[in-house]
Amino acid sequence: MKITCIGAGYVGGPTMAMIAYKCPDIQVVVVDINAARIAAWNSEELPIYEPGLFEVVKAARGRNLFFSTDTQKHVAEGDIIFVSVNTPTKTRGVGAGKAADLTYWEGAARLIASVSTTSKIVVEKSTVPVKTAEAIEKVLRRNCADPNVAFEILSNPEFLAEGTAMEDLAMPDRVLIGGKETESGQRAIGVLKSVYEHWIPSERILCANLWSAELSKLTANAFLAQRISSINSISALCEATGADVQQVAHSIGTDTRIGGKFLNASVGFGGSCFQKDILNLVYICETVGLKQVADYWNSVVQINDYQKQRFVERMIDAMFNTISGKKITVLGFAFKKDTGDTRETPAIDVCKGLMADNAMINIYDPKVTEAQIHNDLSLGKFMWDHPTTAGTKSPRQNSVSVFKDAYEACKDSHALAVLTEWDEFKRLNFQKIYDSMMKPAFVFDGRNILDHAQLRSIGFIVYALGKPLDPFLQRNYS
Ligand code: NAI
After folding, report:
1. How far from 76 is each of 86, 107, 355, CA to CA, in Å?
2. Which residue is catalytic, options 273, 285, 351, 410?
3. Based on the domain organization, do 333 and 447 belong to the same domain?
4. Which of 154, 270, 274, 327 could bond 413 through an S-S bridge, CB–CB 3.0 to 4.6 Å?
5. What is the ipTM of this complex?
């Protein structure tokens, strides 16, 4: 059996590496139109950072795992074609700002149709709107010259989380496969199931109809993001009342009906999926006339934007309502720890908010490059996932400096803002940092990872999200 995956990104790369690693009897080829990305997958410097990924790729690469730009050849030869291309938010036209842009998906489908001379199972790995399989099937059938070639479409959404992708792939809570309720549909489900059964107990492989599987992925992301927005909304109330959001989260999380996960208040959720998938869900609800349902889910995104804005306003208020010309150090730019991914990271909106008030920003992140940061800060909303959009440095970005060392980044600054929960930030020598900063020295902990009592004893004025406010902050600004 040969598996070909179109799209060598955060999903295609790690998922295929795991399949190849666990299934030595299957040949797996990952193809992409991005030659630089493929070259990186074939090198010692993989294009994405994920703990444990390099070891898995190394074990399988050259044995039964290959990365190639020869899309036509490998798609033609594949028995199962995974499609793991990007499905960004539309930036123009009907549904702009909400609907999924399926240009890349349709391009992949047309490619499959044009080169296929044998029947294939086509697997939706990308997150797509409900009923995409129906549209894709039409594209495949109408564009394939050989009437004897059959395509069976399956939905197999990916539930991995960046930062723990390899663990999630090795031991997933569940794998979901959706297919048609026809005989050939069920047969195709069986084939894909047999791939996963190489290492996943069959009771963890859930089967559903196509539309349920497609909708399950959007719903899962909407529920996860909704928990974050829910606790973040409560963090604002905690600050107003003197309650402590961590104590509230712990108290409610011990109720088994609620559970303790995804209850950390923070400066906001980020990543390539949550916002995009909720907006897509909102758009689908609107198009089928479910306005109240659309409004409900849209509020999850609104609270997320509010939380980022609130954080910036807190910073400005605390620093005597003026940050113009003040140096502010941002610790962490990735959207979460253990990844170099900056797509939709809250750091972008926080930095832009501070830049709008003329702050000078020093940024340190252990995994994000200087070029990536400047690019991110130069792009407009939703533009990051449209490959033709190249970021150009705006004049205001001259106020942004990127550092390779946290201590250097903190020197002479008025405030630190922790925007990613990297473990190494907890181990910094804050006395040394305090001594090198302007006074009063502020810490704004957007992830609640630092030892706030220790920081206060050093002399910092501390703002911790959702925690009782320092007397200094209360006296002046509440
Ligand atoms: P990505 O942007 O990292 O990778 C997509 C790749 O597809 C790019 O390298 C692009 O060059 C390639 N591509 C686009 N059109 C192509 C074509 N016609 N032929 C060959 N290659 C083509 O995206 P990522 O993060 O891997 O996401 C892919 C899909 O998976 C999205 O729908 C996303 O919503 C979904 N997803 C992402 C997760 C994540 O954590 N990043 C988790 C679960 C699902």
Report:
1. 21, 15, 50
2. 273
3. yes
4. 327
5. 0.98
